[in-house]
Amino acid sequence: MLDVLVGALVYSNLLALLAIGLSLMLLTCRVSNFAHGDVVTTGLYAAYTASVLLRVSPYACIPFALLAGGLVSLLSFLLVFDPLRRAGGGPVTLMVASMAVGIIIRYSLHAYADVMQRTLGVYTRQFVLSDFELQLAGLRVPGVLPLSSLTAAVLLVSLYVLLYRTRLGVAMRAAIENPQLAESLGIDVKRVFAIGWFLSGALAGAAGVFLPFRVISDPDVGWSMLLPAFASVVVGGIGSLAGSVAGAYVVGFSELLLSYLLATLGVSTAYRPLISFAAIVATLLLRPKGLSSLWSR
Amino acid sequence: MRGVEVLSFLVSTAVLYSVYLILASSMEIEYGELGLPSFAKAAFFALGAFAVGALTVRLGALLTGVALEGEFKLVSYRYATLISASVARNPALGLALFAVPLLVALPLAVLMGLAASYPALRLREDHLAIALIAFSESVRVVARNYEPLVGGTFGAGVVDFLAWLRSPWKELALLAVALAMGFGAWLVEYRISTSPLGRVLRAVRDDEVAAQAYGKDVARLRAQILALGSAMAAVAGVLYAFYAGTVNPDDFTVSRTFIVVLMVVVGGRGNPFGPPVGAAVYLLLDRGITLVKHYIPVPFDVNYLSYILMGLLLILLLLKRPGGIVPERPLLTLRRALPQRGSAAAPQQRGAEGGGPAGT
Questions:
Q1: What is the mean pLDDT of chain B?
Q2: Which helix (H) or strand (E) holds A140?
């Protein structure tokens, strides 16, 4: 049971890091970004490569993951989404483009994994990394639990401070609210959005560092987190940043706890993804504003 | 390459082309013409394939009086071979095993398509796309874990319904069946696109409220088109399963849907010639790279390169030529109608272009 709770908390931390970026990209470009899961994988391989080269723990390489994820996301904004947005592409066109971006990133990482395995001589597919263990209040917990919680908390609080306590944050929220008006007030909307995309990607990249400590990893692993992350956004209420974070913990815990409960009834845990898929469909149909309807009208 | 190999390469390319032509035609009607992101395509494609995977072996065993012993996932391939041997002596059995899955899959696909049109009325288009993708993945997750259906990750064996024909004729018969189905589906799409119905679909796509104001029942149109498109995808699934000789749930991922969308966008949304062009471009790229892969010196699996190239192609087209290779030509029917009606009707028709012209 402790394992399930630890797993749920770590998983929810990572979902929160993804979901808030997905929300930010929905708000800035109205794109449901299907490449965001592959940005996670980019962070994973960046940190893994750095840790092998520098001979340090992957945890120490989180800055590389932040940078790699941020840059990939920024490039996708500058080269694909911003031009398409300006050309008047609808949300579905942008979504299709994001699937293409995702495929380019994913298969580039597949190619990179081959090269990395050959040149560095480490496993780059179907691998897990061994974690250290920690005594916490008399319980043995894996190191990924406090570290992922700390990372998520620090990054999410920083993002909050940036958005609500700095001039850049005010500019970003203004640009989201009304791009034309913001532009006429002298805000460089493209620059502000680009910063938003870099931050979204950086958060996703950071999430990637923790994945190999929990699941068997390969270049497809981030993609498999994408739909649960979308579930978090939808459950939290599309367009609400705080909702996405709340949604991530609701989705993460219900996935793990429900599948644990069902497993005791003899249902295979392999059906676990169905919980978040069902959450997407049910929330959209029954309560399209999700959790955010609890605190805003 | 020997003659036999060339023949089998050509046949497999043509059959795959037909499968993708059916899928792209259905996506063209739904997404290209009506603007409905029917991104559960892989699930409807899977439905046809699952009907074949779940039924041919069981039905064949029933009809030949063989008792199935053992778990389905472990024995389906063995029994498929056994029943194929019976089909070799009895062509009627082969035809029955081809027809029954098709007759089971079609009504199911129509019903599921109608069910999918329920959220289509209520959700914004991108939310609908995400909901349909989630639904599509759910189907795959269930199929790969519920082993009695099509053997889970083991997959299911498929009876060779043409086992009664000898080698070159067998391939040619499969080729004929596939091409007939592929171009039949494309003809349906072509007829719809160039008919008054096609104009209504594009009118709904461009301005739903205006189309409604002209008295078009948007809800019914969506239900009809989704039912039709889903049925077409199921036909493609049946064909694909018989071609592949096996059914594996993990074949029906979101990537499969994406490839079909790619064909429609690359070919040209809203142009009836988009699907055949898009499917050809995809297969040329995919098969072309398979053919020359031994000559490309890269330190990784070359197949990754074909995915990367396809992604790049799609993005470049969206940026530089959003209409696709053969862009939409909205005046196709109008130009044909003009000489008969005289030039006086032309300005009126042209004026009504965006909002559902009165032509039905």
A1: 88
A2: strand A139-142
